Amino acid sequence: MTVDKAGISILDTIKAGTLNGAKMVHHEDEFGSLEKGKLADLLVVKGDVASNIYDLTPDNMEVIMKKAISLSGEHCEV
């Protein structure tokens, strides 16, 4: 089922995988949103995923970071 057919907004879908997931495990003070002092894995995507969820494709992924390390191996300050 796609987001548009489920009746869930794109932003609510993104929150479900980020902030709401952190809230479910009672760790929203540690991760789940981009804030100073929080842990973050980060995906930078070409396009406007908030307007078009279908922009979220492997071809549009610019940077993928896990624990401040990009998958290309470079350290990144966030």
From TrEMBL:
Matching InterPro entries: Amidohydro-rel, Metal-dep_hydrolase_composite
Signal peptide span: none
Domain Amidohydrolase-related: 4-60
Domain of life: Bacteria
Molecular functions (GO terms): hydrolase activity, acting on carbon-nitrogen (but not peptide) bonds
Alphabetized Gene3D superfamilies for the sequence: Metal-dependent hydrolases, Urease, subunit C, domain 1
Stated name of the protein: Amidohydrolase-related domain-containing protein
Organism from which the protein derives: Lancefieldella rimae (strain ATCC 49626 / DSM 7090 / CCUG 31168 / NBRC 15546 / VPI D140H-11A)
